[in-house]
Design brief:
Layout lengths: L1 H10 L17 H6 L9 E2 L9 E2 L6 H12 L13 H11 L3 H14 L6 H22 L1
Antiparallel strand pairs: 1-2
Helix pairs in contact: 4-6, 5-6
């Protein structure tokens, strides 16, 4: 299970909408109690629709099952062709880059790519990957 979980984290490390983390509940006992974790390993996931303490995952524990669940139920991607799939923040970024040249957008992509390995808060890193995902789409569209 641990290897599959680590591989899942690697598979989604560049995701702008999914964060894979873990907690050692044998050490963090108060956190485990707060979130209703009593058996190990326990997998919980959190979305705007779940209970604030998360919902329990009961699917397969192999990498393929975990990855399918994340892709089908948790991962969210903004499609610049359909802004309704994007957050308000992403929509503002799309409007901003639409007014710029391909050269400027290529420079912005390079700047953001250079920041990927820097230490930052999770929400900042998520928005960094959201912007890269949007720029990837924009630059691919500009090449057509």
């Amino acid at each position: 299970m641990k290897a599959a979980w680590e591989d899942l984290g690697t598979a989604f490390e560049a995701s702008s909408s999914v964060i894979i983390g873990d907690v050692d509940c044998t050490v963090e006992k108060s956190l485990a109690e707060e979130y209703g974790v009593s058996g190990y390993p326990t997998i919980k996931y959190f979305t705007a629709e779940t209970d604030p303490k998360g919902d329990s995952y009961s699917g397969g524990r192999d990498l393929d099952s975990l990855k399918t669940f994340v892709e089908d139920k948790l991962e969210r991607k903004c499609d610049i062709k359909d802004p309704s799939t994007c957050t308000e923040k992403e929509q503002k970024f799309i409007a901003k880059i639409n007014g710029k040249s391909e050269e400027d957008n290529t420079k912005e992509h390079a700047r953001l790519t250079g920041m990927k390995d820097k230490k930052m808060k999770a929400e900042q890193k998520a928005f960094l990957f959201q912007r890269l995902h949007i720029l990837d789409q924009k630059l691919a569209k500009d090449e057509l």
